[in-house]
Amino acid sequence: MDAVKELSYALDTFYFLMSGALVMWMAAGFAMLEAGMVRAKNTAEILIKNISLFAIACIMYLLMGYSIMYGESASGYIPSFGFLIGDDHALKDVLAGGDDAPYYSLMADFFFQVVFVATAMSIVSGAVAERMKLWVFLAFAVVMTGIIYPVQGFWKWGGGFLDQLGFQDFAGSGVVHMCGAAAALAGVLLLGARKGKYGADGSVNAIPGCNMPLATLGTFILWLGWFGFNGGSELKLSDVGEANAVAAVFVNTNMAAAGGVIAAMIAARLLFGRTDLTMALNGALAGLVAITAEPLYPSPLMATAIGAVGGIIVVFSIVSLDKIKIDDPVGAISVHGVVGMWGLLAVTFSNPDATLVAQLIGLVTIFVWTFVASLIVWGILKAVIGIRVSEEEEFNGVDVSECGLEAYPEFTGGK
Amino acid sequence: MKLITAIIKPFKLDDVRETLSEIGVQGITATEVKGFGRQKGHTELYRGAEYVVDFLPKVKLEIAVSADMVDQVTEAIAKAAKTGKIGDGKIFVSDLEQAIRIRTGETGSDAL
Questions:
Q1: Are the beta carbons of B47 and A331 separated by less than 8 Å?
Q2: A250-290 pLDDT, tens per residue?
Q3: Which residues on A lie below 8 Å from B48 (Cβ)?
Q4: Most exposed of A60, A136, A343, A380 (fewest Cβ within 10 Å)?
């Protein structure tokens, strides 16, 4: 019997680690998606942002984020403040059995959680692309991944008041995606639109991204990584019930993305008269975000429909945000924020434990906390050092002004 | 000597090159260019916002020939590059004062 317990501990830990590795790979997806959706002159800067925000997220979450989110706390509202991770589980605790016995490694849990923080932060980088100062963005990343994200994460996944209230968010339509989008929205509001996005008469100008193959590759990478994101969030694999649950989560995650693509394509075709590739890509991600709050309970067909509604929402949301002058080059606020809200509400269709009231309280709490806290941090950064590059630097591209190199160098001396 | 400058549709480049080789043209310089004439541009769509592409891609050929070959060359280009649809391009002919082959130092029509 002890051997079986040890084996299942090893299996669940292994599953957790491999899921975390898949989610880590989503950082590559975000990097490629964003690199394809910005102009060539801003590519190197968006790439360095993506790799450095990932590194910052890892370090800040190790230093304080993880213990804020999952530490022992006296109250469901105020998290405890601590540093680093504790010791891993002892063999005798694992073998003791019972409900409280750990069934996977603590380090594996940290690893799985840390890549989620990075995902939330990646969402911000695309929305503020092409005009924000690099180091100001990184300063925000420190606060976001060290404090803002962990606090609302504690309220739900750390056992805080949202969890006690019955708020359901399986893998983070709210805790991860809407949270990232709320921080991004606060940043975009203080940052303003890219130069040239709007005409003097208020007309919306297109600023086409430079590389559609990269944007498509990035979307496929995110789609793949999402199996770890949602599949891993089942947290356990080692018995028949859990294995079936994980398989259901994989199927539903995949179906929702498929539904999102087709719905967004059709919506764009009807709305614009042409089949816009970037909308199909955003549709896939919208489907994935929509199902993330509850990928276990729906039937595969229902998951397809939930994703499809996400795909329709995202097309209208992107066009509407453009019109009210919220300039989001990659559509991150629509994909992760607006559709994240839809995902949280869609939980009530299939999860018998979910209530509309609890979902709304959770939605509003996460959004308001993240938006207001982010607005304060962005606001301080803006007042003290400024968050936007100069007009000339923006015109020349932030690759040269922020990084000193170009992603696609040409005429660099012959030979 | 004359310099023939022809603006043609990019996909007609191979046809034109073959025809000109057949009638004995020794050299062509081709450049990818953008421009507009009566064809004007067209509109494209990105994430719901329309934008105008004013300049369409064309290929510009520069061919230096002796004066007696001008008509033969221009006719050949016109025939090979013609589709009959708008945007087929134009041919310009101008005087050429001097030509020098860098390797040998030959000048005038010997250098063509």
A1: yes
A2: 999 999 999 999 999 999 999 999 999 999 999 999 999 99
A3: 204, 268, 271-272, 276, 315, 318-319, 322
A4: A380
H or E element: which one contains A242? helix A240-272
Q: What is the pLDDT of residue A73?
A: 76
More confident residue, A84 or A59: A59
**B47 touching A, CB under 8 A?**
yes
Distance CA A146, CA A83 (A): 11
More confident residue, A359 or A201: A359
| Distance from chain centroid for Cα A281 | 16
Question: Cα–Cα distance between A260 and A280 in angstroms, integer?
Answer: 8
Instruction: Tell if the CB–CB gap between A271 and B49 is shorter than 8 Å.
Output: no
Prediction ipTM score: 0.76
Q: Does A33 touch chain B (CB under 8 A)?
A: no
Closest by alpha carbon to A338, among A379, A305, A309, A381? A309
Q: Mutate which of B42, B44, B47 to test chain A, going by most A C-beta atoms within 10 A?
A: B47
| pLDDT confidence bin for B39, thresholds 50/70/90 | confident
Question: For residue A339, what are the contacts with CB-CB under 8 A and spacing of at least 6?
Answer: A173, A177, A286, A289, A290, A310, A313, A314, A317
A400 CB near a chain B CB, below 8 Å? no
**Are the beta carbons of A278 and B49 separated by less than 8 Å?**
no
